[in-house]
Amino acid sequence: MADIVQFENVGLRYGAGGETLSDLSLSLEAGGFYFLTGPSGAGKTSMLKLLYVAQRPSRGVIRLFGEDVVTMPRAELPALRRRIGVVFQDFRLVPHLSAFDNVALPLRLAGMDDDAVAASVHEMLDWVGLTDRAAARPATLSGGEQQRVAIARAVIARPELLIADEPTGNVDPEMANRLLHLFDGLNALGTTVLIATHDLHLMGHVPRARTLRLARGRVSDPVGALRHPPRVRA
Amino acid sequence: MIPRPLDRIVARLLGRAGPLPQPRIAGPMAALIAIMVFLSVLAGAAGLGLAGTSSALDRQMAGRVTIQIVAADPAVRAAEAAAAEAVVRRLPQALSVARVPDSEVASLVQPWLGTLGNDLPLPALIDVELADGGVPTLRRALRPVAPSALIDEHARWLGPVNRLVSALSGLAGALVLLIGIATAATVVLAARGALDTHRGTVEVLHLLGATDRQIARLFERRFALDALLGGVAGFLAGVAVLLMLGRLVVAVRSDLLGTTVSSGSGFALLLTVPLAAALVATVSARMTILRVLRRML
Description:
The structure holds two protein chains of two kinds.
Chain A: E1 3-13, E2 19-29, E3 33-37, H1 44-51, E4 59-64, E5 67-68, H2 77-81, E6 84-87, H3 99-109, H4 114-127, H5 143-155, E7 161-165, H6 173-188, E8 192-196, H7 200-203, E9 210-215, E10 218-220
Parallel strand pairs in A: 3-8, 3-9, 6-7, 7-8
Antiparallel strand pairs in A: 1-2, 1-4, 4-5, 9-10
Helix pairs in contact in A: 3-4, 3-5
Chain B: H1 5-14, H2 28-61, E1 64-69, H3 74-90, E2 94-100, H4 102-113, E3 124-130, H5 135-145, E4 149-153, H6 154-197, H7 199-207, H8 212-252, H9 255-258, H10 264-294
Antiparallel strand pairs in B: 1-3, 1-4, 2-3
């Protein structure tokens, strides 16, 4: 399998402080299922930001889908971002839009016609159990419902790479399992999945998943206990 | 928040409102544009009216002269006037010749002298319109037949008035331009504010793969709508004031002021003011939003 993500000696520094991420070198295979774990403050969210191109690194090279995103012109980023689905830790739903319209956003941005959008969104809302909440604004949704809307929005356009930051943090175990099955199903269809989580129970549900452990801004496998450590590039 | 009916109708007319809140009608931006358009319509109407006055003055000045026969003896005056009129009519440079009736001359001084003017030796007047360069020829032709004739060139006393009117007309045009610039500057500030207010949404849209143009279009719509509604309101208010002023001007019965009331073509020009305001607001908003977005990743 070809690598869909490549990090080479990537460093990230905010302002004049120390490096949040240091010498990150790793690669993710296309079609792989990965968990990203590590203690709070280890740099997981910063690494995810680099992956969904919300941030450029201070140094190093990042290739997504074989393209160097560090030097990529701004005008080419939207097309690249449409290949990536993101579930943000804080959901980042658009407050003035209904659940339906939030989920529909990626399809509308891609120029899909309204009928096709409606069919896809209803199917997706049904999948995450929010059909009866389609017209609700985010402020009237519970934390778990907002999280499901965020997940539906991230996956509706069938992204090639799905990045999720603590996607099951606000849902009950049953819904967490359903969502994980959704991710699993997408992965089976070829989507590369990377989930940042602290939930060891969740990680146990996907036997073929590989785990990246991030500590103090570096990818590591300190005790050798993690399954399938990532292939680290020399 | 339940959108107000007018907001809903407008949103329907413009299509889906998009990820930004539905625009509120009669918000501060619409009110500001209304005021700007109102002032522009007044300044524009003044400029157009003054330009019309200037043209009228130009026409009046171009070769217009009044011959005054000032002989004190009524018989001599009448004879000189008749001879002068006959001579002038034969001049090839004379485009029009009109003897001002004595009764009209008397009525001209009547407001100041009352019936006393009837006993005074008032000059005989002949209005003449000459082709370019006709005044020296007229002077030479009159000298032998009407020695008491004085030639009053209108350009001599209307020139300064015309220069003042032209300057005021230019000033009105400059005011319209300044109001346009102020409107654009205000829209730039408002667009930056709107972008700051919705920065979170804009970031999400970017991360979902929205292009700068797609995002800018959302803001453009809002500003275009505000500008259009404000522009129409300001235009209607301006026209109402102009119509009211027009009535007052008619009551004054001044030829000079009368030309400041807009003609049909002037009105059509004023009609472009709200459209221009909408265009300025939309383009300013678009350029501002795109410039700010380019600084984001």
